[in-house]
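Q: what sequence does this backbone want?
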């Protein structure tokens, strides 16, 4: 199909294999592939490389009552503010089954490892890039971004503003009380 100008329209939906050239090409033009992560669906079985590159973090394998996946960057001021809020949440609810996995979308894994150690983060930290197949499948194009999973690994929240909500501790408390 051609447009009036004679050029072919750009397809924004790129539902293909992760790591495929077409997905990477779409990201470089500023388009995200079609996401497989939707509220109410099960989170896909994805792995993220640990910041020290020794292990893989697989959120779907956690035996947690509530999991928060936080995609961030050390260069993003809002991400750093939200890490403070995450630490507070983790300290308050870890004993009740809350787990946090922070996935830094940043190319320098050593910097992420230093950041993790320096700030004594009590959770697992992974280091990926926006071009990582696992990140592409989720459809994340910017940071910060938060995904919350229930005990059955169903997606409860998939957005960037979740940790900005002043009622977040109340919402997490209500979740645990309803269990």
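A:
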């Amino acid at each position: 199909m051609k447009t009036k100008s004679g050029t072919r329209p750009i397809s924004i939906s790129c539902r293909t294999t992760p790591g495929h050239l077409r997905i990477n090409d779409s990201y470089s033009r500023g388009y995200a592939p079609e996401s497989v992560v939707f509220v109410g669906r099960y989170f896909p079985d994805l792995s993220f490389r640990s910041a020290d590159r020794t292990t893989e973090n697989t959120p779907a394998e956690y035996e947690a009552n509530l999991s928060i996946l936080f995609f961030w960057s050390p260069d993003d001021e809002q991400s750093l503010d939200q890490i403070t809020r995450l630490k507070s949440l983790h300290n308050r609810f870890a004993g009740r089954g809350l787990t946090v996995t922070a996935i830094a979308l940043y190319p320098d894994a050593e910097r992420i490892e230093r950041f993790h150690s320096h700030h004594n983060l009590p959770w697992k930290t992974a280091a990926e890039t926006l071009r990582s197949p696992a990140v592409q499948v989720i459809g994340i194009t910017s940071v910060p971004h938060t995904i919350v999973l229930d005990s059955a690994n169903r997606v409860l929240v998939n957005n960037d503003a979740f940790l900005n909500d002043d009622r977040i501790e109340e919402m997490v408390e209500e979740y645990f009380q309803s269990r």
